[in-house]
Structures are given as C-alpha cells and as structure tokens.
C-alpha cells in the first residue's frame, strides 16, 4: 500500500472501516483512505503517530518510550478534545468530522473523504486570471462557511487555497481543521493564543498569528481569506507576512503591493475590500466576515444560484506546503520540564497530524489484511 514501514497495512479494519491506502504522512501522523465493506462509504482516517516517539507493535498497536508517557497522554487528550469540538460543525462547505476512536494506545479521527481538486489547483489549471464573478461560486460558500464557523465560536487559522477542495460538482469544501481554535470568550468572539502552536502559511497568516502571546479573533481568518482572494485575482499570493513585519519595523514601508496595482482588472471597490482585509493591523480590517461580504457587494445573493465555473481535471490534490509553527509562551513553560524539543514535538503533533498532507496521494501496494478493534468511543455534542 505504501513504502512507509509505519503505516497500517491495506485491509486493516479500524472502527468498521477497511484501510484502502495512505493519503498522506508527516512527522506526527498518517492519514488513510478507508472504506466500509458494508455500505461502501469512503472516509479519511487520521492516526496519531509521532515519529521518533512512537513505534508499532504488531498490526495496529502503538507503543511509546516510557519517558514520553506523560507527554503522549497530554497530546492524545488534546487530539481527542479537538476532534470532539470539530464534530459539532455541520455545514455543507466544511468537511465533516464524525467519529473519534481511542484504541491501540493512540487516537483516530474519522472524517468525510473529499474527492476533487484544491482551489489552488483550479487556479493553476486556468489559462488566464479569473474575474471576481468567476471565483464567486467557489469563494462565496467559503465566506458562508467561515461565518458559520465564527458563529460556533471557532476560528480556522489556516485558510488557504490548498485548504479549499472543489468537488466534481463544483462545491467548495474547507478541509484541514488542524489549526482550529475554540474561542474561549463567547461574548467577545476572542481567544488568547495560549498553549497552542501558531499554524499557517506565511503568505496567508496575519501578522498577529506569527507572534507569541497575541490575541486572535475572527479578523485573523478575514486576513487569510483576503489573501486567498488576492492569490486568485492577482495570480500570486500577497507579500510574505514576516517580510511585511520586518520592513514595517525598520521603517521601510509595507511590502504589500495593493491589489488594485497587482490586478488592475479587478473593480475598484472589490479591490479595496480585499486590501482592507489584508491590513497589517487587525483593527484596520473588517470586523466580521459579514462586513467583508458586504464590502465585496456579495451580500444578499445565494451562492447556490450562481453558475458553477469550476472544471475538475484531476482527483488528486497538490502537495501541501510546510506549515509555519512557533511555540506559545505557555508551551515554552511546559518545555522546561521535559526538554524544549520533545515538548515542541508532541505539541506540534496535534497540528501537523491534521494539517500535513491530508489529501496528498502516495504510491500504493497491496498487503494482507489485519483486523483491528471495533469502536469504543464516538464524537459527542
């Protein structure tokens, strides 16, 4: 099935789903395609497997070095709670997480299998730059999905073109919720970035997300969404966030080229809305996703009635870029007890397990099936 010696073998049964193939693998986890032999349902299964810390015993069981027991326990609890939180999300444009299994001394997240091409691939396959109306069928539902996400007191923190899948029928689906953060203050829709790793891509992450101890709210996703619009309309992503921060700090001016200059074909008002979303200071951006939608002039029109422009040429997605990670101050305090590198590795596992190469295709080879256990835990809430 795969050249990865750590991966489950094809035919292994986890929670009633037969492992078909490896979809992606990173330093801290392995993602599989699974299929129900009864219903034929296809799913994605994410297995917690921190390399260098974990080893496989037999067909399915995972063992850890004794010195890592406390760290692994903490990490698995975080992975489980994150999965359970994501099970609450029910939206047609958000990939559905529906089950969590704690077994074999590890954890498994089960979610819908999304087949199609990423929005990034859709953009690359085009012979020319799209217009604002041509990207509307793909991005207006994403706006709706983020609006829903914020109403449920979550922020995504990793909105990017390769985290948006376009299915064969043209439906956009936000995937990869490894960076999701539940907002602790439900009234203010605001969350302090405590004991979490800042995840995102340098062209799509807002400045406050790349700094330790910063407060994040819905405006972090607004920045990232603005960057997605910029990439689509200008043919390239906006300036690197850290480069912007450095130049501004040294008084060299903002390195971000305004969209009105990078893409003169974009209507002025539309470009201004995106430029505002990409403001360096969070206070200078739109205050909510709905405000951003209104600034675009898309308010009040359902995306379901818009004609579908997406053309899917391949079911495989493009490989994911490495995520940018920096530890929060709370993790640094914990790292002093067990060694900075090991704490960082365990904490990052929670992020990279879900974020890294979730739907990237890998070479496969068949193997004899092994049988695992039935599920003992399902998502609640």
What's this entry about, in short?
With 381 residues, the protein is of the alpha+beta class. It is built from ten helices and 15 strands. α1 runs parallel beside α10, α3 packs antiparallel against α4 and α9 crosses α10.
Explain what the structure shows.
It is a single chain. The protein has 381 residues and is of the alpha+beta class. The radius of gyration is 21 Å and the shape is globular. Mean pLDDT is 77; it is low at 184-200, 301-338 and 349-376. The protein has a 6-stranded antiparallel beta sheet. Strands 9-11-12 form a 3-stranded antiparallel beta sheet. The chain has a two-stranded antiparallel sheet with strand order 5-6. Strand 2 and strand 3 (29-35) form a beta hairpin. It has helices at residues 69-86, 119-125, 132-151, 218-234, 241-249, 259-262, 268-277, 289-296, 329-338, 340-355; strands at 13-14, 17-25, 29-35, 42-48, 54-57, 61-64, 97-103, 106-112, 116-118, 154-155, 164-167, 172-174, 181-182, 190-192, 215-217.
């Amino acid at each position: 099935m795969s050249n990865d010696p750590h991966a489950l073998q094809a035919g292994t049964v986890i929670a009633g789903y037969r492992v078909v193939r490896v979809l992606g693998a990173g330093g801290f986890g392995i993602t599989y395609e699974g299929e129900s032999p009864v219903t034929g349902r296809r799913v994605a299964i994410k297995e917690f497997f921190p390399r260098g810390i974990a080893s496989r015993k037999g067909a399915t069981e995972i063992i850890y070095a004794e010195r890592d027991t406390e760290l692994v326990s903490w990490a698995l609890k975080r992975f489980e709670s994150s999965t359970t939180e994501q099970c609450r999300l029910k939206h047609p444009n958000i990939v559905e997480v529906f089950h969590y299994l704690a077994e074999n001394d590890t954890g498994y997240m089960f979610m819908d299998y999304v087949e199609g091409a990423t929005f990034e691939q859709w953009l690359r396959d085009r012979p020319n730059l799209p217009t604002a109306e041509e990207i509307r069928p793909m991005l207006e539902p994403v706006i709706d999905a983020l609006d829903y996400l914020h109403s449920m007191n979550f922020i995504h923190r990793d909105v990017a073109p390769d985290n948006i899948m376009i299915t064969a029928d043209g439906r956009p689906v936000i995937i990869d919720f490894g960076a999701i953060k539940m907002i602790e203050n439900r009234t203010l829709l605001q969350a302090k970035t405590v004991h979490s790793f800042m995840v995102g891509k340098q062209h799509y992450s807002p400045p406050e997300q790349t700094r330790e101890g910063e407060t994040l709210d819905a405006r972090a996703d607004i920045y990232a969404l603005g960057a997605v619009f910029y990439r689509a309309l200008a043919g390239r992503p906006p300036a690197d966030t850290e480069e912007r921060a450095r130049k501004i700090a040294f008084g060299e001016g903002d390195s971000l080229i305004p969209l009105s200059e990078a893409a003169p074909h974009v209507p002025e008002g539309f470009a201004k809305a995106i430029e505002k979303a990409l403001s360096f200071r969070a206070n200078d951006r739109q205050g909510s996703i709905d405000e951003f939608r209104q600034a675009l002039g898309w308010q009040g029109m359902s995306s379901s009635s818009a004609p579908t422009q997406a053309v899917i040429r391949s079911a495989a997605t493009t490989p994911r870029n490495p995520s940018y990670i920096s530890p929060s101050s709370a993790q640094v305090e914990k790292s002093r007890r067990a060694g900075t590198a090991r704490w960082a590795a365990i904490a990052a596992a929670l992020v990279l397990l879900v974020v890294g190469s979730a739907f990237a295709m890998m070479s496969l080879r068949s193997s004899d099936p092994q049988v695992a256990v039935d599920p003992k835990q399902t998502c609640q809430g």
